[in-house]
Amino acid sequence: MTEQIDWPRLRAAATEAMRHAYVPYSKFPVGAAGLVDDGRVVVGCNVENAAYGVVLCAECGVVSSLHVTGGGRIVALSCVDATGEPLMPCGRCRQLLWENGGPDTLIESRTRPLRMAELLPHAFGVEDLEAIVADPVVPTVPERLAAWRGRGTVFVHPDVTDGRQVWTAYWERSAGDEGVGAGVLEEGPTWSTADEAVTWGEARTPRVVVVDADGTMFWAGEGEAPAEIPRRWAGS
Ligand SMILES: O=c1ccn([C@H]2C[C@H](O)[C@@H](CO)O2)c(=O)[nH]1
To answer: Which residues are in the CMP/dCMP-type deaminase domain (predicted)?
Structure first.
């Protein structure tokens, strides 16, 4: 991945963003540009405030722009100071970048790109919450699919992984929506129970269908079972 990153382009985008910084107090403009896993480049600049402590770092802008333009993960980031030279993200921003990129995200430095795992070793993250709170704490629907929420159908079915019986699911866009072409929106992970797969489905659409090993369909969605799938899933 490192070879594919156009660092000069990323640095140029960060430098351009830096020129828009609002820094009447520190006079220290910062710009940042993040490469997203789908190829987008999202930028931000620092924005200060008369209440000094509420300053927004350039990286905050990057993260906001990441979400507002469709989400995804930041794979590489360049942050620059007024001279256009790489600036290391502050501690708080490292935490933000950790959640929106992760340990493998690369950060430009004056020497070589550094992995987030190097910048924030032993990081606190969402896994620490999930270790205590049973349910996933981060919304499970990827942002790029947010507009599909409530539409389509999730099909839950058994599968075999490494010789183990598991359950999996996929979110299909056509079913239940007139005039929408066929196509899988998202493949689910695997679970040991069908109910976990149904929960994954419920986060996406009210239409959830379990297809058991014999190919029999059961309605596991909201409301009355539709005529074509009269049997209701009783749980696994
Ligand atoms: O990673 C950093 C470090 C600092 N700043 C900003 C905050 C403030 O406006 C100015 C001086 O700290 O630089 C950033 O935008 N990103």
So the answer is: 5-127
0.80 exceeded by pTM: no
CATH for 2-127 is: 3.40.140.10
Whose alpha carbon is nearest atom 15 of ligand 1? 57
Q: Where are the domains of the chain?
A: 2-127, 143-219
Spacing, Cα 59 to ligand 1 middle (Å): 9
For ligand 1, atom 3, the nearest C-alpha belongs to 90
Which 3-state string (H, E, C) describes the chain? CHHHCCHHHHHHHHHHHHCCCECCCCCCCCEEEEEECCCCEEEEECECCCCHHHCECHHHHHHHHHHHCCCCCEEEEEEECCCCCECCCCHHHHHHHHHHCCCCCEECCCCCCEEHHHHCCCCCCHHHHHCCCCCCCCCCCCHHHHHHCCCCEEEEEEEEECCEEEEEEEEECCCCCCCCCCCEEEEEEEECCHHHHHHHHHCCCCCEEEECCCCCEEECCCCCCCCCCCCECCCC
Asked if this assembly's ipTM is beyond 0.90, the reply is: yes
To the query of whether residue 16 is one of the catalytic residues in this protein, the response is no
pLDDT band at 162 (very low <50, low <70, confident <90, very high): confident
